[in-house]
């Protein structure tokens, strides 16, 4: 039976070791602990799994969940509790939290050439959909973690999903800019990351409906642009965009249109787009 860290963290500290073999989720898993976190209250249980990736590696390693909190104070308490939980899961796996542009990763052997990702975690809230959440903010959980894949396969997949390996030129988000254990405003994944199965599919299928999410640092939430692949050249995808939607449709509870041109083209790298309906 898998250990449930949310209840046992005080007794498990210092017991875990990080081996060179594949790390299985059964040992102090952020996914298992997140499931326990969700199950603790009726409010959290009345949410839904979102952002269901159709392509590898996202469909293998990612989990996103959302729910309507029961009030601002409750949302703040949940966020603080999950922040603490994520740090404890990282600690008992002998890891350390590092903050990258794409968010917070728990890693083993940080800032060395032997650094390896253990998991990614994030929790955030927004008032954007207050009409759908009658009592409080809308809370979203996201995590990325290995299941039973071999070490190298997981290492490569984590990079597709936003992890940047250690290098002499890697820049982490300064601690002074991260006030909590988990970074709350990660930037969109850099286009230099390797393409996954989804990017390859998009590049090979002109006419496919795709979306791109864009958020400026000053914005509470960004916008999703949706259209059809028009052409492909040198890894860049030109899309005929006909819709602009409020928020990230992979986690927003409803698709809310905002004013947009009748037709406009957006060109971006293949891995900036994702398949949508």
Verbal overview:
The protein is an alpha+beta fold. It is built from seven helices and twelve strands. The protein has helices at residues 5-12, 30-39, 42-45, 58-61, 72-92, 151-160, 197-203; strands at residues 48-50, 62-68, 96-100, 103-108, 116-126, 138-145, 209-214, 223-233, 236-246, 257-258, 264-269, 273-275. Strands 1-2-6-5-4-3 form a six-stranded antiparallel β-sheet. Strands 7, 8, 9, 10, 11 and 12 form a six-stranded antiparallel β-sheet that branches. Helix 1 (5-12) crosses helix 5 (72-92) and helix 2 runs antiparallel to helix 5. The chain is globular, with a radius of gyration of 19 Å. The termini are far apart. Residues 1-23 and 190-194 have low confidence and may be disordered.
Structure summary:
By secondary structure, the chain is of the alpha+beta class. It is 23% helix and 29% strand.
Helix content: 10-25%
How are the strands ordered across the major sheet?
Answer: 1-2-6-5-4-3
Strand content bin: 25-35%
User: How many helical elements?
Assistant: 7
Largest sheet: 6 strands, antiparallel
Which series of helices and strands comes N to C? HHHEHEHEEEEHHEEEEEE
Mean pLDDT: 85
Form type: globular
SS elements, strand count: 12
Radius of gyration: 19 Å
The stretches of 5 or more residues where confidence is low (pLDDT under 50) are 1-23, 190-194
Structural class comes to alpha+beta
């Amino acid at each position: 039976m898998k250990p449930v860290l949310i209840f046992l963290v005080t007794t498990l500290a210092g017991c875990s070791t990080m081996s060179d073999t594949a790390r299985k989720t059964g040992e102090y898993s952020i996914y298992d602990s997140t499931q326990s976190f969700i199950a603790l209250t009726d409010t959290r249980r009345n949410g839904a799994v979102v952002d269901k990736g159709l392509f590898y590696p996202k469909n293998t390693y990612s989990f996103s969940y959302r729910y309507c909190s029961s009030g601002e104070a409750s949302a703040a308490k949940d966020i603080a509790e999950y922040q603490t939980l994520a740090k404890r899961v990282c600690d008992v796996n002998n890891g350390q939290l590092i903050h990258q542009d794409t968010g917070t990763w728990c890693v083993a052997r940080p800032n060395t050439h032997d650094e390896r990702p253990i998991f990614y975690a994030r929790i955030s809230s927004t008032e954007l959909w207050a009409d759908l959440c009658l009592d409080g903010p809308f809370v979203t959980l996201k995590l990325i973690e290995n299941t039973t894949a071999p070490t190298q396969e997981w290492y490569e997949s984590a990079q597709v999903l936003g992890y940047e390996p250690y290098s002499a030129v890697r820049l982490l988000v300064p601690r002074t800019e991260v006030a909590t254990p988990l970074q709350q405003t990660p930037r969109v994944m850099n286009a230099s990351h390797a393409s996954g199965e989804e990017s390859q599919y998009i590049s090979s299928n002109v006419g496919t409906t795709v979306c791109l999410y864009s958020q400026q640092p000053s914005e509470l939430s960004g916008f999703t642009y949706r259209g059809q692949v028009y052409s492909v050249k040198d890894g860049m995808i030109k899309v005929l965009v006909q819709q602009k939607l409020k928020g990230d449709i992979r986690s927003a509870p409803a698709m809310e249109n905002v004013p947009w041109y009748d037709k406009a083209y957006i060109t971006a790298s293949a891995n900036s787009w994702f398949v949508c309906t």
